[in-house]
Design brief:
The complex is a heterodimer of chains A (about 220) and B (about 220). Chain A has about 220 residues and is mainly α. Chain A has nine helices and no strands. Chain A has a single domain, classed as MetI-like (MetI-like fold). In chain A, helix 2 packs across helix 5 and helix 8 runs antiparallel to helix 9. Chain B is mainly alpha-helical. Chain B has one domain: MetI-like (MetI-like fold). Chain B is flat, with a radius of gyration of 21 Å. In chain B, helix 7 packs antiparallel against helix 9. Classes of the chains: A mainly alpha (about 220), B mainly alpha (about 220). Chains A and B meet through helix 4, helix 8 and helix 9 of A and helix 3, helix 4, helix 7, helix 8 and helix 9 of B.
Amino acid sequence: MSYSFHFGVIWDNFDRLLAGLALGLGLALVSIAIGAVAGLLLAFAGASKVRILPALIAAYVTVIRNTPILVIVLIVYFALPQFGFRLGKIESFVFSLTIYATAYLTEVFRAGLASIHSGMIDAGRAIGLRRRQIALLVIFPILLRNSLPALGSTFISLFKDTSIAAAIAVPELTFEARKINVETFRVIETWLVATALYVVTCSLIAAGLRRLERRFPRF
Amino acid sequence: MERFLIELWTVRYTLLDGLIRTIGVSATAIVIGSAIGLVVGGTLTYGPRSARWPCRFYVDVVRGTPVLVLVLTSFYVLAIVGIDFTAVQAGIFALSIFCGAHMSEIVRGALQAIPYGQTEAAKSIGLTFLQTLRLVLLPQALRQILPVWINVAAELVKASTLLSIIGVGELLLRTQEIIGRTFMTMEFYLVAGGLYFAVNFGIERLGKYAERRFALPAGS
């Protein structure tokens, strides 16, 4: 095999790759932010006494978690407009990714809620806190801290899932890499650089999360 | 609705064919990936430093890369370096690499969770390293690995949809072809989604069953 590497054209297009990377991170951030709020609400609602609610939420989580994200993305982008629900490429992908993130985060927070020691709630009651105060001042902080590792790994996997936006031509990193690949034919260089960008970004996020976890000790 | 049912009946074999391809591709990747996982996971736990380093590199790089990038890289790069793979083969290659990296971490975690006393006990009755691994450590690790292994299988079935992007005629690509002809977008995407859900839900149930079946009895 004789292949001579020419990274020059990749560096010429490097700003496009970086812009794609930034867009991917942005998509993942927006999705996890909305998904975390929705997941938190659904997890609390799932623990409620109204019978039908927990069943509905469990069904939502099971269906979404067992459906490939590409199928969800394609349904939202290509099928929903038939019913008058028309979104731009980026909004459509954020919507799909948020549906996905919400299902995973509901499960994360549900497990987090289940793991909170009932003694904490009793203690809150003993010092005279009201139900809402217990939820806000006792359960919520513990839940957030204990869910931090799972939140972090969900964020990393959501960031990796943003590559799927390439399927509906959202100009994120994978889409740009594919375009550069076709334009320049520097196949190995393109994918080497794109992969390196993903790997480095993921490890930086992971390292940041580890620091955050050390900073706030577990309850 | 009636038109949809007629169309659905017309394409039943096309969908079935896609579903079989999806399951075939996923199953092949699981078998190859598990083999990689056993070897690499074992090396990560017991191998010499010089062998551990490349294994760690492989696992970390693949786990930090989106599956779609693995699929596209395999599809485009393998041809350049002179490996003449079809799209299906490149797809299976990518999924196996992906599965292998995740399995390696699972195997390593399970092996490291076994108390060191087990290895010492095996040494004291004169077992060689390979015997220790085969007779003492792996059977215990398997109990932990199995439920997670089944989850990886469900992940792979979902990831196999990405092969539609490089033109492998699995369930999703077949569905897209049908939609291109019938324009019944929502209907057929929901059919595909339902089929994926059925397969994965079955796998998930199996995982829950395995977890119960292989859990250590309480108190032991």
